[in-house]
Design brief:
With 366 residues, this protein is of the alpha/beta class. Helix content is 31%, strand content 19%. The chain has eleven helices and 19 strands. The chain has an eight-stranded mixed beta sheet, sandwiched between helices. It has a seven-stranded mixed beta sheet with strand order 11-10-9-12-13-15-14. A hairpin with a 2-residue loop joins strand 16 and strand 17. The longest helix is centred in the middle third of the chain and has 20 residues, at 130-149. Residues 147-309 form the Alanine dehydrogenase/pyridine nucleotide transhydrogenase NAD(H)-binding domain.
């Protein structure tokens, strides 16, 4: 019998993405796999059931009873694991950090689970890097939110009433989300700067037409992430940043490290020194925020400065976010297949690094 790859309708509040799109369903069938989806699984993302030509649909319970592989966007509810048969594979964004009870539940059921957030940031892993693909969506949407909420125009305008100067936008963090935020702010005509403690990002920032903000502090680390700053380095960084923020109209915070709280870069004192009408959009709100005043999922005013902490931004552009995400999952699933069978090769770094549990063995040590 062919392997049955499945997906359910996502149930997390506000989640509109789907793990398997019509395009990826076709690719899976072309590989000789069977595809079974819960009815309405892709509807919120813009993919009604009829868009999935030749794909079978069933109730959630029927899908889980037949699943060899369950693809997900966010971790399924705990009750889902109990309905999967032993040996089934669950993969997607499983949010493993701080989820010991969930991982233990997977292990007790002798399920095999892969958390794609744990992929190493290597060239080979790029095609399956869910963090990068979804961060690109988040960076884009954060900038649109900033442009709408900012009391100023982003571009320079020459009008009969005079010339309007462009807004000055500072993007903190030059990872995938930050670079997409920079590119989008540039497209909207703002005067853009990018800041990152990793000096190697200067070239990337400048390649997008933005200015790299050099505060004289380097935190070059390994694996594509920054190292933690010393107390002296942090003090020097914060003083230089505080001085610069006085002339900035919009700050977009994107600095984050997987599995850890977001670095607190903007203090209340810094915010108090910003000009009236300034805006902060904190993309790192889900992991605590880059600003100590951020309220995850809401907005707050501090003096004359507005701080927004939007959550799950990729879900706000579900069609393209799902297309990118589903391609990531398909590329990873290719690693698990051999001659039409599920045979994870744990000698492969990408497979080994992402595995949470397998055949009753707890493999994640984070």
């Amino acid at each position: 019998m062919p392997i049955t790859v499945t997906a359910l309708r996502e149930t997390a509040a506000g989640e509109r993405r789907v793990a398997i799109t019509p395009e990826v369903a076709r690719k899976l069938r072309a590989r000789g796999l069977s595809v079974l989806l819960e009815r309405g699984a892709g509807e919120a993302a813009g993919f009604p059931d009829e868009a999935y030509a030749e794909t079978a649909f069933a109730t959630a319970a029927e899908v889980l009873a037949q699943a060899d592989v369950l693809a997900c966007v966010l971790p399924p509810e705990d009750a889902v694991y109990a309905q999967l048969r032993e040996g089934a594979v669950v993969f997607g964004q499983l949010r493993p950090y701080g989820a010991a009870a969930r991982i233990e539940a997977l292990n007790r059921r002798r399920l095999t689970a892969f958390a794609l957030e744990l992929l190493p940031r290597t060239t080979r892993a790029q095609a399956m890097d869910v963090l990068s693909s979804q961060a690109a969506v988040a960076g884009y949407r954060a900038t649109l939110i900033a442009a709408e909420a900012c009391p100023k125009f982003f571009p320079m305008l020459t009008t009969a009433a005079g010339t309007i100067r462009p807004s000055r936008v500072l993007v903190i963090g030059a990872g995938v989300a930050g670079l997409q935020a920079i590119a989008t702010a540039r497209r909207l005509g703002a005067q853009v700067e990018g800041y990152d403690v990793r000096p190697e990002t200067r070239e990337q920032v400048e390649s997008l037409g933005a200015k790299f903000l050099d505060l004289g502090v380097s935190a070059a680390g390994s694996g594509g992430y920054a190292r933690e700053l010393s107390a002296e380095e942090r003090a020097a960084q914060q003083q230089a940043l505080a001085d610069h923020l006085k002339v900035v109209d919009v700050v977009i915070g994107t600095a984050a490290v997987p599995g850890r709280p977001a670095p607190k870069i903007l203090s209340a004192a810094m915010v108090e020194g910003m000009r009236p009408g300034a805006l902060i959009v904190d993309l790192a709100a889900e992991s605590g925020g880059n600003c100590e005043l951020t309220r995850p999922g809401g907005g707050v005013s501090h003096g004359h400065v507005r701080i927004l902490g939007p959550l799950n931004l990729p879900a706000g552009a579900p069609l393209h976010a799902s297309e990118m995400y589903a391609r990531n999952l398909f590329n990873f699933l290719e690693l698990l297949l051999k001659d039409g069978h599920l045979q994870p090769d744990f000698a492969d770094e990408l497979v080994e690094r992402t595995c949470l549990a397998h055949a009753g063995e707890l493999r994640f040590k984070g």
